[in-house]
Write a structure and sequence with these properties.
mainly alpha
Length: 145
């Protein structure tokens, strides 16, 4: 059995929300939903592409009304809707990636950063000057009496 990706889980969730009718998902008008941009199950063309963090945000804000502790204790099943497709991703991490693989990626990223391949180091230094305080706190305008 194929494991779901975060995008596929969002798509299944949206289908479940719309009664299994894909046309309703396509025509969904609820733009305030965190899943709205991902509802078709495809990656965003440009910019921020973070479906795992989007699922986490949905679970905390929409499903559990801002209570992070309830997300940890979630059972992923409701009587009305059935099993939640987003449940395995609710912590903002992919269940398809093992802890060992995650640690290897962290170590590789750390090595690249230590070797000077840090993306942030390429940013222009013109913004790194410290804030300069004003010469005088007194106004140069004459006082009106």
């Amino acid at each position: 059995m194929k494991k779901l990706t975060a995008l596929e889980a969002i798509r299944k969730f949206c289908l479940q929300c719309q009664g299994g009718v894909s046309a309703n998902v396509t025509e969904c008008q609820y733009a305030a939903c965190p899943f709205y941009a991902y509802r078709l199950g495809v990656a965003l063309p440009a910019g921020k592409h973070r479906p795992l963090k989007t699922i986490r945000a949905y679970c905390v804000e929409e499903c559990q009304a801002g209570n992070q502790g309830q997300v940890d204790d979630c059972q992923g099943d409701t009587a009305a809707a059935g099993p939640c497709p987003a449940f395995p991703f609710r912590m903002g991490k992919s269940p398809n990636v093992t802890a060992g693989t995650r640690e290897k990626r962290r170590a590789a990223n750390f090595r690249q950063t230590a070797a000077g391949k840090n993306v942030l180091s390429s940013i222009s230094t013109r913004h790194s000057k410290p804030f300069q305080a004003a010469e005088s706190s007194k106004s140069t305008r004459p006082e009106v009496v």
